[in-house]
Write a structure and sequence with these properties.
Layout (H helix, E strand, L loop, with lengths): L6 E12 L2 E12 L3 E5 L6 H8 L7 E6 L2 E2 L5 H6 L2 E4 L11 H6 L14 H6 L1 H5 L10 H13 L5 E5 L7 H17 L3 E5 L3 H7 L2 E6 L2 E7 L5 H8 L2
Parallel strand pairs: 3-8, 3-9, 6-7, 7-8
Antiparallel strand pairs: 1-2, 1-4, 4-5, 9-10
């Protein structure tokens, strides 16, 4: 059962390789329901690899991923999605020739037939999508595509939402809209949100807890109450 403020996502000792090179080393962290956990670190330290491991997009060589107390099969994106994990990848991966509505409906793949509907709340979060349902995904601006990618992930009614660099290349007014949407989702207390983000100002504004990764290892885990922005910036400068 989901309870506000308890771990929804529990990662234990995850190791990941690319070929002969090890990228992640015994990564352990938790993400609580009703909170945003920011995974921070410089480029190339393994943040995206961590999200790919959690979401089943890249095989791991050891460790466990537990969602709401249940260990999920690793290295299967479909099974991860069925277990309640939704992943918004870096680069958005919108289908350019499909309409906004059709892009949203691709989220049905892991749902039973009686759940094949686009809930109204995704349009309440991102009103521009309601107006553009018949427009092709490739015709949207970068910010609109990012909103579409997040909305598509929400179609699965996830208990864990993973986002990889959602503000990358996005204009400031849309960054504000995305931040507002994530805070709304957080405050509803129905999911844990894990945010990989290079924009430290954005991450520190909306996140509740922080996991700093350095060279494939967890350097620090802290709540905002015990971790100042200056301390975060100092860690990121290393």
């Amino acid at each position: 059962m989901c309870i506000w403020g308890v771990p929804m996502l529990d990662i234990r000792g995850v190791n990941l390789n690319y070929g002969q090179s090890q990228i992640l080393f015994d990564i352990s962290m938790t993400a609580e329901i009703g909170k945003i956990t920011a995974v921070m670190g410089n480029n190339g330290v393994g943040k995206t690899s961590l999200l790919k491991a959690i979401s089943g997009r890249h095989p791991v060589v050891g460790g466990e991923v537990i969602v709401d107390g249940t260990k999920i099969p690793l290295s299967s994106a479909y099974r991860a999605a069925q277990s309640g994990i939704a992943y918004v990848p870096q680069g958005r991966e919108v289908f350019p020739m499909m309409s906004v509505r059709e892009n949203l409906e691709t989220g049905f793949a892991c749902l039973p037939k009686d759940a094949h509907d686009v809930p109204e709340f995704v349009f309440d979060l991102f009103p521009v999508l309601r107006e553009m349902q018949s427009r092709r995904g490739g015709d949207l601006s970068g910010g609109q595509q990012q909103q579409l990618a997040i909305a598509r992930a929400l179609i699965t009614r996830p208990s864990v939402l993973l986002l990889d660099e959602p503000t990358e290349g996005i204009q400031p007014n849309v960054i504000q809209q995305i931040g507002d949407a994530l805070e709304t989702l957080r405050d509803q207390g129905e999911m844990a949100i894990v945010l990989v983000e290079q924009n430290a100002d954005f991450a520190y504004r909306i996140a509740d807890t922080f996991t700093v990764v350095e060279q494939g290892r967890v350097r620090r885990s802290a709540s905002k109450a015990e971790y100042t922005k200056d301390a975060l910036m100092a860690d990121l400068a290393l």
